[in-house]
Amino acid sequence: MYAFTFERPASLDDALKRVAAGAKPLAGGQTLLASMKLRLSAPEQLADLGGCQELTGIRKEGDALRIGAMARHAEVAASADVKAAFPALADLASRIGDRQVRAMGTLGGSVANNDPAACYPSAVLASGATVITNGREIAADDFFQGLFSTALEEGELITAIRFPLPKKAAYEKLRQKASHFPLVGVFVAQFDSGVRVAITGAGNGVFRHAGLEAALSGSFTPEAAAGVAIDDSDLNSDLHATAAYRANLISVLAQRAVARALA
Q1: Is 1 in contact with 36 (CB distance < 8 Å)?
Q2: Which helix (H) or strand (E) holds 210?
Q3: Transmembrane stretches, by residue range (predicted)?
Q4: CATH code for the part of the protein at 168-262
Q5: What is the per-residue pLDDT across 60-92, written as a single tens digit (0 to 9) for each?
Q6: What is the pLDDT of residue 18?
Q7: Could you say which of 3.60.40.10, 3.65.10.10, 3.30.465.10, 3.40.50.300 is the CATH number of the domain covering 53-164?
Q8: φ, ψ of residue 158 in degrees (nearest 5)
Q9: E strands within 121-176?
Q10: What are the φ/ψ torsions at residue 189 (nearest 5 degrees)?
């Protein structure tokens, strides 16, 4: 590791000032610190957001859940409010990484990083959530913009995410045993207005699948999902799996997710 200054602002305003002055915001550190060790990132200042109480908390607001950006994965998984109102989200959080990652990783950090194989972005996109920052609100459909890319501007911080509550929802993934990231993950959420389906791990970023959404909006059954052809032309091929294999996984996991949501 190299020399850098470590700061712990006590409020969101203080954190924003330090970030504006050039400090790199540190949430759970599950990606940033590893990147620093590998010299892929070399910030001279870190601003630890752990002391900003404005970024914490989980509460139900009408027909939605508002979760603070600094909520740890383990907190989301254990929250009675999340378990009661959005059990699929609690389940997703309970299966991220390993115990150490869940104890330190944060919702806001994961969403801001937008790793193409992260679990949380699929829940945010499938539920049509709203990403709340220090200056505005961004719809999930506008937020994720490809590989490690989001709509966040320089110096902008996520403060919370507001999740609409689906009628039924479930998340299924096939986990890479070494990294614990999903080889493919599928989040299915049913609303009165229709079904939203978000895929992670299969492409250059999280994305919705129009074919599955149309089929499941017409008939929310595993059979309807099974009848959708999954095009592999834009999917990833790497040492872990071919694009064709990932396409098959999308179909299989979508069927499992719907069955789980109906159980």
Answers
A1: yes
A2: helix 210-218
A3: none
A4: 3.30.390.50
A5: 999 999 999 999 999 999 999 999 999 999 999
A6: 95
A7: 3.30.465.10
A8: -70, 130
A9: 130-133, 137-139, 158-164, 168-175
A10: -135, 125
Query: Tokens in use for 62?
Result: 């009408």
Q: How far apart are the first and last CA of the chain?
A: 49
pLDDT digits (tens, 9 = 90+) for 133-185: 999 999 999 999 999 999 999 999 999 999 999 999 999 999 988 777 899 99
37: confidence class by pLDDT, cuts 50, 70, 90: confident
What residue segments make up the domains of the chain, in order of their start? 5-51, 53-164, 168-262
- Strand segments (E) across 94-157: 130-133, 137-139
CA 241 to the chain's CA centroid: 22
Q: Give, to the nearest 10 degrees, the angle between helix 210-218 and helix 243-262.
A: 30
Q: Does domain 5-51 have CATH number 3.90.870.10?
A: no
Say which residues have a Cβ less than 8 Å from residue 128's Cβ, sequence separation at least 6: 139, 140, 141, 164, 189, 191, 196
The DSSP letter of residue 144 is B
What is the spatial distance between Cα 213 and Cα 166, in angstroms, rounded to a whole number? 14
3-state secondary structure of 98: coil
Q: What is the pLDDT of residues 84-125, one digit of tens each?
A: 999 999 999 999 999 999 999 999 999 999 999 999 999 999
φ, ψ for residue 197, nearest 5 deg = -130, 125
Distance between CA atoms of 69 and 113, rounded to whole angstroms? 12
